[in-house]
Specification:
- The chain is of the alpha/beta class.
- The protein has 2 domains: 246 residues, Aspartate Aminotransferase, domain 2, CATH 3.40.640; 123 residues, Aspartate Aminotransferase, domain 1 (Alpha-Beta Complex).
- 43% of the residues lie in helices and 14% in strands.
- A 7-stranded mixed β-sheet has the order 2-10-9-8-5-3-4, sandwiched between helices. Strands 11-14-13 form a 3-stranded antiparallel β-sheet, covered by helices on one side.
- Strand 13 and strand 14 form a beta hairpin.
- The protein is globular and about 65 Å long.
- The mean pLDDT is 95.
- It holds the Pfam family Aminotran_5.
- Its cofactor is pyridoxal 5'-phosphate.
- This is Serine--pyruvate transaminase.
- It comes from Thiorhodococcus drewsii AZ1.
């Protein structure tokens, strides 16, 4: 007989999902009401305001898509790309490649700026590519490449795009709430993210924001949007308006409670304070890893604080280490993808996962398991290195 599912209690320090804050889990259990209930509509308006705070934007069309971050990606491409459109797309990891796939599926023509895995997108390559393709009207890139831990300069890339009369589509799935993201100040046109990373929420929602330039392109489309569910012309009727909504779909009511609570917590902490907490904890984790003789693959000035890609030492079976960490410590780390499969561990410090106890657990557990497999480490020195950095400042999660 199949019984109720009771999952093990894990510490999630992979590329996502991250640990969900207890306040967010409690919000999920609140009474379900109708998705057109006036009380729920009021909460939706608050949710849009909170997302504007997180994205640092005044964009009217800022909302969560009722689907995971991949749907956030798709809503941008199906609305902004028409058949025959030339789109410059930057690929420096798995998620840039997914952008290219979206362009192809919408009938667009991808023009690839091929970057190096583990490195930021090169602005000079982008500039040269846009010069060579004057008909392109869109530039797509990943700000925070989750597959490698590389952070690209979204502000500079947007400036280049606009000089060449291009709009930007930006993947900020791992960036939102964890590292600087300034939608209005940087002039980003369409940005998508996910609920399960630095927002400390459950998987399944995709915050997005669209600026006026992007919406004007949607209004001027000559063809129907490929997807009915993700057609902004239809979705806007549900997420816009003053206390009035046009029925589009049954929203995931309790999941939106959870996102609302996670964003209330972000507002309480302060967006810039959350950025600093992630950066501070990254420095502590890095100190511990380096004391173990481990190396991060991304150059210092191109690293994401919330996603750390660590080179696996020679002679160590990376999958075995992850298995032992899960078995012995209930600790989840991520594996490498694509070109980096079998070569790295991805250690996430996202949202509620970015706290001192997790860092100490991760460094100590890695030290023990690597030692057991023949890689000499000094757990005491590594933990002391972590504590030294943590003691410099202790931001609350």
């Amino acid at each position: 007989m199949i019984r109720s599912f009771n999952p093990p209690v894990r510490t999630l320090m992979g590329p996502g999902p991250a640990d969900v804050h207890p306040r967010v889990l409690a919000a999920l259990a609140r009474p379900t009401i109708g998705h057109l209930d006036p009380a729920f509509v009021t909460m939706m308006d608050e949710l849009k305001d909170l997302l504007r705070l997180a994205f640092r934007t005044e964009n009217a069309l800022t909302m969560p898509v009722s689907a995971p971050g991949s749907a956030g990606m798709e809503i941008c491409f199906v609305n902004l790309v028409e058949p025959g459109d030339e789109v410059v797309v930057c690929i420096n990891g798995v998620f840039g490649a997914r952008m290219k796939e979206n362009i192809e599926r919408t009938g667009g023509i991808p023009i690839v700026v091929q970057g190096q895995w583990g490195r930021a997108v090169d602005p000079n390559q982008v500039e040269e590519t846009l010069k060579a393709h004057p008909n392109a009207r869109l530039l797509a890139f990943v700000q925070a490449e989750t597959s490698t831990g590389a952070s690209s300069d979204a502000q500079t890339l947007a400036e280049i795009a606009h000089r060449h009369d291009c709009l930007t589509i930006v993947d900020a799935v791992t960036a939102l709430g964890g590292s600087p993201l300034e939608v209005d100040a940087w002039g980003l046109d369409a940005v998508y993210s996910g609920s399960q990373k630095c927002l400390s929420c459950t998987p399944g929602l995709a915050p997005v924001t669209f600026g006026e330039r992007a919406l004007e392109k949607v209004r001027q489309r000559k063809t129907k949007v490929q997807s009915w569910f993700l057609d902004l012309n239809l979705v806007m009727g549900y997420w816009s308006g003053e206390q009035k909504r046009t029925y589009h779909h049954t929203a995931p009511v309790n999941a939106l409670y959870a996102l609302h609570e996670s964003l209330v917590m972000l507002a309480e902490e302060g967006v810039e304070q959350a950025w600093e907490r992630h950066a501070h904890h990254h420095r502590a984790l890095r100190a511990g890893l380096e004391a173990l003789g481990l190396e991060l693959i991304v150059p210092v000035d191109e690293r994401l604080p919330q996603l750390n890609s660590v080179a696996v030492p020679g002679g160590i079976d990376e999958a075995l280490v992850r298995s032992r960490l899960l078995q012995h410590y209930n600790l989840e780390l991520g594996a490498g993808l694509g070109d980096l499969a079998g070569k790295i561990w991805r250690i996430g410090l996202m949202g509620y996962s970015s706290r001192p106890t997790n860092i100490l657990l991760c460094v100590g557990a890695l030290a023990n398991e690597l030692s057991a497999l023949g890689h000499r480490t000094d757990a005491g020195a590594a933990l002391e290195a972590v504590r030294t950095v943590l003691d410099q400042k202790t931001p609350a999660p």
